[in-house]
Amino acid sequence: MFGNGWGRRKAGWLAVVTQGRQLTLAHVIRGPGVRPEICLLESFLIEKSELEALQRLRSARDLKSYACTTLMPPDEYDIAQIDTPKVPREERKAALRWALKANVDYPLESACLDVIDIPLDAAGSQPSVFAVTAAEARVRTRAALFDAARIPLLAIDIAELAQRNVAALLEEKNRGLMFMRLDEAGGLLTLTFRGELIAARRIDVSALDLADADAERCAQRMERLVLELQRSLDNFDRQYSSISISRLVIAVSPPVDGLAAALKESINLPVREMDLSSVMDFSAIPELRDTRHQARNVLAIGAALRTTGDNVEVA
User: Fold this and answer.
1) Is pTM beyond 0.85 here?
2) Could you list the residue range(s) of the whole structural domain that residue 252 is in?
3) Helix crossing, 50-60 with 136-148: angle to 10°?
4) pLDDT tens string 193-231
């Protein structure tokens, strides 16, 4: 997404992702014809500030030797699916700024704007794109944090693309995949097809909501989650009828006992808990054989799965 200009060093990408009061590092190397290899996955407590933690890790984990990426916090950017403007490609961003003006509370004239194309064979009769916007000050603040720590930040990404990177590994050939991630803050539902992001919806239900000790509250939230999934499935079917969805994969942290079984009874799709053991090389991180560890770190892993081709010019 939003790029920087540092030079590349070690192969692959190192994702530096803030998760609550922790910083997680994930280093992934991708090569042709082999499974992506996770070479490093560690989490560290943010004791004083994020800057202090980054400075400490720069030396302790030699972060200056990596090509680094990070994620924008979900409340610091906006993503909208919108019809592709009928203008020449070089005028597209200007047209999108105008179309999105009423949707955000910051000036779009100076905002960072990036565009994610939705493949024509999935978009139906009207081509559409994802427009990702963020206030310039927020992007600069995020980048300045790494500059102050003297860490080479090459890109700032978003959760939707990190989740897409993981989902793409789990797709069946020529079948779409629904992927739902729930964590302590909320959830994200994505639809991918042939490795591309087709649709994304944020979910206002967290893993903690579904583990509530109050049985009535827990049941109400579960009902809300099922309703959101059913509506999303119906909407996907209407918009992308040419895509056959193979299954719903879920990654939930902290874990919620019985969630997969409960969802199987409520939606018209096979439901599977995420397990990356058959599509990634964990030999350097054996604890990743535990799917709970995978789910806890899915965003950091997904961010580190980015490819150089993910870079998009920012205007």
Assistant:
1) yes
2) 170-274
3) 40
4) 999 999 999 999 999 999 887 888 989 999 999 999 999
